[in-house]
Structure formats: C-alpha cells, structure tokens
Amino acid sequence: MPTLDEVARLSGVSRATASRALTGDAKVKDETRKRVKAVAESLGYRPNRAARSLASGKSGVIGLVLPTLLLSDDPYGALLIHGLSDAASRRDLGLMLWLTHQEPGSTVREIFSGGIVDGLVVSATALNHRWVEPILDGGIPSVLLGRHPSRPDVHHLRVDNLAGARLVVEHLVSLGHKKIVTITGPLDRVDAVERLQAYRDVMEENGLTVTDDMISESNYTPDGGLAAMARLLPLKPTAVFCGNDQMAFGATEAIRLAGLDVPTDISIVGFDDFPDARSFRPPLTTVGQDIALLSQRAVDRLAELIADPSLPPEDVILPAKFSIRRSTGAPPSQ
Predict the structure, then answer these.
(1) At what angle do helices 291-307 and 75-90 cross, to 10 degrees?
(2) Is residue 263 within 8 Å of residue 255, measured between CB atoms?
(3) Which end of the chain is less crowded, N or C, counting CB atoms within 10 A of the terminal residue's CB?
(4) What is the DSSP string of 164-227?
(5) CA dihedral 94, 99, 102, 106 (to 10 degrees)
(6) Among the listed residues 182, 155, 191, the one whose alpha carbon sits nearest the alpha carbon of residue 301
(7) Going by CATH, does the domain composed of 161-289 fall within 3.40.50.2300?
(8) Residues sharing a CB contact under 8 Å with residue 228, sequence separation 6 or more, in sequence order
C-alpha cells in the first residue's frame, strides 16, 4: 500500500505538508494542495483514519443534526445530506447523520461528548427540540444552518429569507396584483416568520391591505398547502405567496379542484426552487437557496472551527436567486 511518505516525496513537500494538504488545511497553497492530491490519487493512497485520529486527537468525522420530518415530507433534508456528504468528502471527512425524532438517549449524548465527532452541523429546523440548546452550549464546534433568534454566540449560515421573500411578493405586485394572500410555514420557526414579515412589509409599502384571514399558517407540506389554500379561496385572491414550494404544489391542486386555473385565475409563487419546481405544471415562480453552496460553506467553516475553536462567531447570509416561470401572470380583469 502506498504511504504518506511516498506521496510527500513525489510531491516535493514535507510529510507534514502532505498531510495538511490532504486534510484540506486552508494554510496550504492551492497549487500545493492540488499537486499533493493528484499524486495521492495516482498512487491510490488512502489515509489511515485510525492512525491519523490517534496522532491528531481528531476523529475526522463531523455530525449532522436533522429532524426526521425533513426526510419524509421535504426534499430539503435529502439535498442537504447529499451536499454535506459531498463537501465533507472533499476534505476527507466522514459524515455522521443524526436523525432526530424525540429526546436523544444517553448513548447519543456520549457520542457527541466523547470525541467520536469533531464538530456538528445543526439544522435550525431542530431548534424547537429542547436538547439542542445543551448541544450548542456543550463546547463542540458547531455551525447552525438558519438563524437562532437569541444566540449571537453561535456560528450561523443561512439563506436571505427576507430578501428572497421580498423578490417574489414584489413580483406579484409588479404584475398588478392587489389581493395577495399567503400560506406560511410553522410560525414557531424563524424562516417562516421572516418570510411572513417580508410579505407584510411589501404589502404595506405598496399600500395594500393585509388582514389576519389573508394569512394561513401551515406545515411546509403539499397536503398542508392544499388545506390552507382551501381556507383562503373564499377571499377570492388573485395571487398567493407560499412559504415553500411544497405548499405551493398543494395550493395549486386546491385551486384546480375549485375549477380555477394557475395562473389565469390565481398566480402562485413559492420559496426554495428545488428540482420539482422546474418540472411542475405550470413551472413554479420561486426563489431558491443553493444547497450545494450552503453545504460547502458550512463544512469549510466547521473545519476552521475545529482547527481553531476560538474563532469569533459569524452570521453569514447567502443570497437567494429569483426565477420567474409560468405560475405567475397578470391578475384576471375585474
């Protein structure tokens, strides 16, 4: 089996530099890192994770804390797992998946306190679980995907919910819509609250009325979107902003069941721009978050924190990308 010494010799660097290059150390020059990795690949070299862990005191494994709901009802979870796995692999890190449904037992607590993982990526969708706060307080390097409402000491990485939601609601206003209703996600989640706030702000800025019955809270699922839209249809809206694409799919079905058409009678916009939005009929106007970029940035930041836990917390906001498709049009003539 090829050794690290051989990789270093053929790369023209020291053994220590070769090791740092293969583990993605940011202090190694890009040119050197690429050369070392190319040599390692040509030799078929694979690091001995157990030996490396003993030498460094690190496991070379990071963990992802994710509610099980995001695997059964929302493509976000699967896309996030894929993105983080790919990003971790590029840094030669393992990914341990922790799917949460209820209070974790002592075994799981021991895993995260016993050095089995070096750091954690925590989905903000888990924030309503009571045990998340002790994890964030526990001293293990962590990056939170989303925004915690009261933890400036935590490293945050998130999509710009406010700006993204503004884009789709402003688009509806620009088309001439005045009776715009909204279907929100669960309002105990920060992302849902931020998207609702953007809707309220845009409506107010354009002199458009928002009453409580124009806001229907749901659960980010197609079935939830269908039920919420059924509650809103008696208001005779000409457009609806759905807090995610899944609810927009369900809302579209409710509109069709009522004998109406999208977008001839009611325009629909969503949020996420996952692959199904492009293939939906009609293709959905929505605003997207780049899960691959989010994952890469999360793993990069976590690797920096593992190397230096004293780094100050950051709140990194990634831009949302707006895509206009055929689910929106001018309101029907009155």
Answers:
(1) 50
(2) no
(3) C
(4) HHHHHHHHHHHTT---EEEEE--TTSHHHHHHHHHHHHHHHHTT----GGGEEE--SSHHHHHH
(5) -20
(6) 155
(7) yes
(8) 183, 216, 217, 218, 247, 250, 251
Task: Give me the amino acid identity at 27.
Answer: K
Superfamily of domain 61-159+292-318: Response regulator (3.40.50.2300)
CATH of domain 4-47: 1.10.260.40
Whole-angstrom distance, CA of residue 29 vs CA of residue 231: 58
pLDDT digits (tens, 9 = 90+) for 22-42: 877 778 898 998 999 899 989
pLDDT band at 74 (very low <50, low <70, confident <90, very high): confident
CB 67 within 8 Å of CB 100: yes
Same fold, 4-47 and 61-159+292-318: no
Cβ(43)–Cβ(7) below 8 Å: yes
Q: Enumerate the β-bridge partners of residue 94.
A: 61
For the stretch 109-138, what's the b/e string if a residue is b when 16 or more beta carbons lie within 10 angstroms of its beta carbon?
eebbeeeebbbbbbbbbbbebeebeebbee
Residue 197 has pLDDT above 80, yes or no: yes
Q: Where are the domains of the chain?
A: 4-47, 61-159+292-318, 161-289
Q: Which of 156, 133, 134, 130 is nearest to 145 (CA)?
A: 156
Residue 51 has what pLDDT? Answer: 53
Tokens of 291: 């899960």
pTM of the model: 0.80
Cis omega (within 30 of 0) on the bond before 282? yes
